[in-house]
Design brief:
Blueprint lengths: L1 E14 L4 E3 L4 E2 L3 E18 L6 E4 L2 E2 L2 H18 L5 E9 L9 H15 L6 H9 L13 E5 L10 E6 L7 E7 L8 H11 L3 H21 L2 H20 L10 H15 L5 E3 L6 E5 L4 H9 L4 E7 L6 E2 L1
Parallel strand pairs: 5-7
Antiparallel strand pairs: 1-4, 1-14, 2-3, 4-7, 4-8, 5-6, 8-9, 10-12, 10-13, 11-12
Helix pairs in contact: 1-2, 2-3, 5-6
Bound molecules: ligand DP6.
Length: 326
């Protein structure tokens, strides 16, 4: 039977991917760097069957249709073409251990697990780089989830994208750095990351400044990771996140992912630092905040963040592993 099961963890970007140079192939305007998280993952089984006339996608025991289904089948088409197996359809069964409430996009772990399971089910043996390159075309940030620990997505130069993939920077056990996902009670009109980054690239007067500063941030953070220098890594990550979010304010029409509680959490983190507890924040395309901290401060961090008005939950995570096959 052409079946395989793979598990992939989500990741949090410390240097953000924000902007595409090619929307079809998902080629970014800048390198990005992330930490894979152990707390949040997707487990996917892909079974190719001769008798199927179309793909079936089941997520958390529910049959999925619409845009979510379309993205999965379009991505599988790509893998089918790559494997020379057009016309062979699959049943895809996914379980998401990424609480949507935690504000992590499940697309990173979702597409990484799907790519791994589908290619394996079709008998392809790919290098990590090839798998990452393929995964990128499902969702950009997913290409970093192939690896555990820290990974960098190299934007590449080529038009065909074959040099745009992630590479490992430091393995899961390199450093016990942790992330608290701070969940807010925030109801907002959603601008998806896909739509938000497009509007920014097309219209933001601050976009050039964002792209120009990436090599500087990347060099510093890689030094910090190698030296296990928490302050260095935290400072660069927080500043990089603020620059990414600044680009949205320069877009036409302008927008922001921040909610008033987002600001309160950011100020709480900065206040903790003033009181001698090292902690730094980062924020993706949504109102929730992720806080970087070290194990010795876990209790204090959790307690302080839980007490912020408007915070509904604080979910803790460690450095996670790369793709595994079950
Ligand atoms: C803000 O990977 O979700 O989380 O490539 O269009 O699927 P697509 O976008 P996606 O964007 C993630 C943006 C981000 C930053 C990051 O993870 O690097």
């Amino acid at each position: 039977m052409m079946q395989s099961t793979a598990k992939a963890h989500t990741n949090i970007a410390l240097i953000k991917y924000w902007g595409k140079r090619n929307e079809t192939l998902i080629l970014p305007t800048n390198n990005s760097l992330s930490l894979t998280l152990d707390g949040f993952y997707t487990k996917t089984t892909v079974t190719f069957k001769d008798e199927l006339t179309e793909d079936i996608f089941i997520l958390d025991d529910e049959i999925i249709s619409g845009e979510q289904y379309r993205r999965v089948t379009v991505f599988l088409d790509l893998i089918r073409t790559y494997a020379g197996k057009s016309g062979l359809y699959a049943e895809i069964n996914s379980i998401n251990e990424v609480p949507t409430a935690a504000g992590f996009a499940s697309s990173a772990s979702g597409f990484a697990a799907l790519a791994a399971a589908a290619t394996k089910a079709l008998g392809l043996t790919l290098t990590d780089q090839e798998l990452s390159m393929l995964t990128r075309q499902g969702s950009g940030s997913a290409c970093r989830s192939i690896y555990g620990g820290f990974a960098e997505w190299q934007k590449g130069k080529r038009e065909d994208g074959i040099d745009s993939y992630a590479v490992p920077i430091a393995p899961q056990d390199h450093w016990d750095i942790r992330v608290a996902a701070v969940v807010l009670d925030a109801k907002m009109k959603k601008v998806s990351s896909r739509e938000g980054m497009k509007r920014t690239v097309d219209t933001s007067t601050f976009f050039k400044g964002w792209v120009d500063r990436i090599p500087h941030d990347l060099n510093l953070i890689k030094e910090g990771i190698e030296e296990r220098d928490f302050e260095k890594v935290g400072q660069v990550a927080e500043a990089n996140c603020l620059k990414m979010h600044a680009t949205t304010l320069g877009a036409i029409p302008p927008f922001t992912y921040w909610h008033d509680t987002t600001m309160t959490v950011m100020q709480t983190v900065q206040a903790m630092r003033e009181n001698g507890i090292p902690a730094y924040f980062t924020i993706d395309a949504g109102p929730n905040v992720k806080v970087l901290y070290l194990p010795e401060n876990e209790e204090k961090i959790q307690e302080t963040l839980r007490n912020v008005p408007g915070v509904t939950d604080v979910i803790l995570s460690r450095s996670g592993q790369g793709i595994t096959y079950l």
